[in-house]
Amino acid sequence: MASITMKHISKIYENSNTYAVKDFNLEIKDKEFIVFVGPSGCGKSTTLRMIAGLEEISEGELYIGDRLVNDVPPKDRDIAMVFQNYALYPHMNVYDNMAFGLKLRKFKKAEIDKRVKEAARILGLEKFLDRKPKALSGGQRQRVALGRAIVRDPQVFLMDEPLSNLDAKLRVQMRAELTKLHQRLQTTTIYVTHDQTEAMTMATRIVVMKDGVIQQVGTPKEVYELPENVFVGGFIGSPAMNFMNVRLEDGYAVLGQTKIKVPEGKMKTLRQQGYVGKEVILGIRPEDIHDEPLFIDASKETAFDAIIDVAELMGAETYLYSTIEGHEFIARIDSRHDVKNGQKLKLAFDMNKAHFFDPVTEKRIAAKA
Amino acid sequence: MKRETMLNQLKNLYGDAFLATDGDRSEADADDFYWFYAENGVRFGVKKAAMTDRERALLALRFRPAHPPLRLYTRAERFWHGLLFEGLTAERLDHANNAPYFLLHIALKKPIADAEGFREAIGGLISKEPVLLWKDEGTAVLVLNERPEKAIVQEVVDLLVTDFYIDVAAFIGGPLAIDERAKARYDLEAAVFRLARRLHPQEQVFTFAQAAPLYALECGTQAIESIFQPLFAVLDEEDAEMEKSLLAYFEHGMNSSTAAKALYIHRNSLLYRLDRFSEKTGLDPKNFKDAVYIYLGILMHRLRKQR
């Protein structure tokens, strides 16, 4: 097991004048499960491939443990990769699929046998070692693909969207299995996904990326509760955070004819940084918009009347789609509250949970340390 | 001392243990030699038994070490090698099968160190003895009886990357008949593949139909470029998202739902971008004939940028 350190890592492809990854700095601790998340083309897979050694690093230094590995061939980096296609050799049985990588590395037969059987035991595949991949279920095949990586006993696992080709039910199941596996093996893992739910549920820390640049690094809770900027706020969380441009008057966020009281603690920060009288972006998560009478009674100055365009029953909760002063928003409420399409409803923002962002830099306005 | 002369001296020194080219010895004993590249790129070998470790180290200082020549294992491989690389005709090769074949071109970023292991891996992927030909240590072609699906080829690529730790790209060729045009067809597909890899270094799997328009445009004249000039002005003016959105829309068979999903944006956002493009250009990406023009224009735009 090992730590990984990336110092000012950048990637520019030949014949291109733009950075695929720019000035990437990160220290991944030993045994961490770190998730790179971001939209397509944000540079997360390119970063993973640089760590693997499949892509050359244009600028910067990469360390695995305390060894500089920029020029170390991939096979000597002591890593194992798992890709989104839970690809297996169709004409090899499960045992041979798991053993093949070790065979290529000229491991002795006895050692291969020991490792394959141990990995099969961990993954619950002992009964299937003689089967060909076509005789396995999707979940079993995915476990064999993981087994191919586990038998190598690497210092680092690199996983590139390993669950994205699975159906929704299996994805949830494998998510839990991967987390359990990490707890058991304690191998440093870097996991790439575009799915913020996977990032939130599996990571010890999340790295949010956009346009080749790190937007924020933090625990799932930090990234969710204190997004550094509008992008992170909008990308992490489902449904996404609601954003609306408001004007700040002392004590209030003004949206058209609606005035919403801003808690004094937040107002003080905004005042100190000269935002009073200016426009800012208000960000509020769907679950921080309430319809409970008790909450509304206690928060009269953040309450407003809304016409519900659509109420979507999701099971335990209901998503309400509505507008405030022409701005669309989504509220997430308890589904025990019966709300109909077209219904007029009083709602209130929990402004203690709201965020304010600078309209130019789109960075969250936070108290200065 | 000139290296050509040095090669002669080595030949004199090692006699029968010296092999000046790849081809004048049976492939079976290639592993019995240490291999090096001469300055002119020709590979030469010296029998392992005839060299001390010190001699080998000295030679490696003067000549770049090489892997053993890649072998042709079967009669079928020798046949296809003759057809595709040497231009031998089917008649000369005494082969009567006229069923169409498909070539899966494979390119490795680094030379293959374990060609036997690679062959075994390919054997695990297809049901019968593979016909795998190496053009050089980084370029191979697999001859198949049917056209492989792109998703399957992506799986193959992933497997090879995880097992061999080499960046792999693959290209699915069009149907190929066994006749005197086979070598020209192979050469054309190889050229299209090289261009596609140069322009899309992050992509791993290409198909002939998807990459061929790029090649046609690359071979075209300035007159072709001028046809798309009005489009370039709009593409230059817009941000990269517009070009990306249009391309995704076309590459998903003009299906806005799947394209939006691939772009991780809402379908309405994509439709809004397409409408904005229509307003600016008077071209409708949802109309097939306009779409062909826009698609080729985007490819040409990318080629220009690469230049």
Task: Please provide a written account of the structure.
The complex is a heterodimer of chains A (369) and B (307). In chain A, helix 2 packs across helix 3, helix 2 runs parallel beside helix 4 and helix 3 crosses helix 4 (138-150). Chain A starts with a strand and ends in a 12-residue tail after the last strand. In chain A, strand 1 (4-12) and strand 2 (19-28) form a beta hairpin. Chain A has helices at 44-52, 94-104, 109-123, 138-150, 168-185, 196-202, 220-225, 230-235, 264-272, 293-298, and strands at residues 4-12, 19-28, 33-37, 59-64, 67-68, 79-82, 156-160, 188-193, 205-210, 213-218, 242-249, 252-255, 258-261, 279-284, 289-290, 303-307, 310-313, 317-324, 327-334, 344-349, 355-357. Chain A has two domains: 4-235, Rossmann fold; 242-357, Beta Barrel (OB fold (Dihydrolipoamide Acetyltransferase, E2P)). In chain A, the strands form five sheets. In chain A, strands 6-7-8-3-9-10 form a six-stranded mixed β-sheet, with helices on both faces. In chain A, strands 13-12-11-14-21 form a five-stranded antiparallel β-sheet. Chain A is built from ten helices and 21 strands. By secondary structure, chain B is an alpha+beta fold. Chain B has helices at residues 3-14, 53-62, 75-85, 115-125, 150-164, 182-199, 208-219, 222-227, 229-237, 240-251, 256-263, 267-281, 288-306, and strands at residues 18-19, 33-37, 43-47, 64-66, 101-108, 131-136, 139-144, 168-176, 205-207. The interface between A and B is large, with 38 and 33 residues.
Brief write-up:
Chain A is an alpha+beta fold. Helices cover 27% and strands 32% of the residues of chain A.
Primary descriptors:
heterodimer, A: 369 residues, alpha+beta, Rossmann fold, OB fold (Dihydrolipoamide Acetyltransferase, E2P), 2 domains, 6-stranded mixed beta sheet, 5-stranded antiparallel beta sheet, 21 strands, globular, B: 307 residues, Alpha-Beta Plaits, Arc Repressor Mutant, subunit A, 5-stranded mixed beta sheet, 4-stranded antiparallel beta sheet, elongated
